[in-house]
Amino acid sequence: MIELKEISKFYGKGGSRFQVLKNLNLKIEDGDFVVILGASGSGKSTLLNVMSGLERPENGQVIYDGADITELSDDKLTAFRKHNIGFIFQQYYLLPNMNVIKNVRMGADLAENKEFEAVIEAVGLKDKRKKYPSELSGGEQQRVSVARALAKKPNVLFLDEPTGALDEETGRQVLDYVCKLQKQYGFTIVMVTHNLNIAEMARTVIKMNSGKISEIYTNETQKTAYGIGW
Amino acid sequence: MRRRKLLMGLDGEYMVIGIKDLAKLFAITIVSCCAVFVCSLFLNYNIDVADIKNAITTEQGLVMYDALVASGKVTAGVSGGCLVITTIIMLIFYIKNYIDSHGKELGILKALGWSRLNIAKHFWIFGMSVFAGTLLGYIGAMAYMPIFYEMQNAEELFPQLSPQLHFGLAILLILLPTLFFMLLSVAYAYLKMKNPVLHLLKEVQRVKVKSSKCENEDLPFLADLRKSTVRSRKIVVFFVSFSAFCFSAMTQMSMSMKDLASESFAWMIISIGLILAFMTLLMSLTSVIKANTKTIAMMKVFGYSQKECSHSILNGYRPISYIGFAVGTIYQYVLLRIMVDIVFANLSDMPEYNFDYKALIVSLVAFVLSYELILYCYSKKIGRQSVKSIMLE
Ligand SMILES: Nc1ncnc2c1ncn2[C@@H]1O[C@H](COP(=O)(O)OP(=O)(O)OP(=O)(O)O)[C@@H](O)[C@H]1O
Ligand SMILES: [Mg+2]
């Protein structure tokens, strides 16, 4: 279980200092599928970064199964991410001088996952495996970044706008694959999206408004990637 | 960060060099200052000393005079052969690498419609930092000259020399390098922007996809990373090995000088040699880090430990730098040997010159310490930065 207690995060210094996350409290069950909705700039990406231990909050605790990760040293935090966290960034962040296979292996090797080829195939990049990021379209890069995170077999998968650059068909395909793997491995999903339809796939939906959680609700039934509108 | 860098405009003009880069310009200033300081001192002295040959009357004075001129030639030759050439090459590569790594900014500006010359001309600032350095070096040398002259003639065997101002020398040592680097930077940026906008934006490093056919799919990520970081950044590799070469040559040469020149003189060369050596090493390792920060940051996000990151990325450069160090050792020995043999050839009490093992050991220890220290500091620094700020840099 992930538990956030009184999380505050500030950016900027002096007069331009402002609070991006305002005393957030949140509980996420293991194996849950959480979608975070909210206007641009409301602090969704920041929340994801804090939750996954990429950034430290100024205040509050991020507790994984009883252990507060905000108290870990940098090295311990890195080790924690190695075993637990998968991350898909809004801006992809692929390694520019490595081809698709190597980018995916970056995640796969950490979990000693030998089936990285299957992951690449599942996101539809089989015939682009030898290409470098600069030779791929935006959506293809996004799928590499998805494959890279999935190949790591994380306990918690954080996705920041994973379908932002994808067309309907490819978007559904990628989401479907993520869900299929979740059924298989039972990891937790925390996804940020602007697509309201995707929220219907989630069990828990969190709405954010200028650094606060304005609403949380649970879907009784979850739709599949092919069952939602787009 | 990017926005600040791009928008630091004057009168609506966009600048490519931001405040953050001023520190790097300062490195250029220090390096050129050191080189010019040594050169102006020696060259000025050699010019002045040539004028007094006729004034010497005693036999002993003439012998002393010849020895003095000879050792002046060795030191000036060495400072010319080593300090200046290495400094020039170092600066050229530093500037090239700097402009290359800002291809993205250049691409954005070009995409927005700025003309090539309009953007490229901003890089004249490199010339200015060279100017600041050479000017400082020259003034410093001028200030130090009376003391230096007196030391050289401590035994008063020939008429007292007073330093003369040689305008030609000033122009040669101050204006020429300034103009050279100014034109070079602008021209290089101008040529660089001949590339299509998209190439610049995507930072297409001409990854030699064909030549790296040894691409082994079975190779684990870390092993492949070690190979590809070194392979895909040939320029950085050259830079690192060259700076190790400089470090080794400069420190050992300046230490060996102790036997060939007066003591105070040797100390001056040693300290300047050390400063220069450290600066060049710092500059090249900065480029190494710069070329790899993103990879390191991303690896840390995924959970690769500090050790794994530095092992597979930074360690790749280590063998190369040691090779550079070894070549530098040989180079300085051969250069000094030749200089001593030629210049002191017709001198009766020719100074002994043998390979200086002590200098080698001291230099090697200093090298290893600085190398590891710099890398350690950088990897700590990367650890403190947020992923976002690194990736968007
Ligand atoms: N490193 C930073 N320094 C200063 N301000 C920041 C930084 N990162 C984010 N912000 C600010 O914090 C706020 C929240 O940013 P965040 O990236 O979390 O938004 P978001 O909800 O993910 O928006 P979007 O949907 O557009 O991705 C924004 O107003 C942004 O300007
Ligand atoms: Mg965001």
Q: What is the radius of gyration of chain B computed over CA atoms, rounded to a whole number of angstroms?
A: 24 Å
Helix amount of chain A, in percent? Answer: 25-40%
What is the CATH architecture descriptor of chain A?
3-Layer(aba) Sandwich
Which ranges of chain A are low-confidence, i.e. pLDDT below 50, for 5 or more consecutive residues? none
SS-derived structural category of chain A: alpha/beta
Order of helices and strands of chain A: EEEHEEHEHHHEHEEE
Which keywords apply here?
heterodimer, A: 230 residues, alpha/beta, Rossmann fold, six-stranded mixed β-sheet, four-stranded antiparallel β-sheet, 6 helices, 10 strands, 27% strand, B: 393 residues, mainly alpha, 2 domains, 15 helices, disordered N terminus, binds adenosine-5'-triphosphate, binds magnesium ion
Structure description:
The complex is a heterodimer of chains A (230) and B (393). With 230 residues, chain A is α/β, with parallel strands linked by helices. Chain A has a single domain, classed as P-loop containing nucleotide triphosphate hydrolases (Rossmann fold, 3-Layer(aba) Sandwich). Chain A is 29% helix and 27% strand. The longest helix of chain A has 18 residues. Chain B has 2 domains: 206 residues, no CATH class; 175 residues, no CATH class. In chain B, 76% of the residues lie in helices and 0% in strands. The radius of gyration of chain B is 24 Å and the shape is globular. Chain B starts with a helix and ends with a helix. Chains A and B meet through helix 2 and helix 3 of A and helix 9, helix 11 and helix 15 of B. The complex binds adenosine-5'-triphosphate and magnesium ion. The site of adenosine-5'-triphosphate has 12 residues of chain A, from helix 1. Adenosine-5'-triphosphate binds next to helix 1 of chain A.
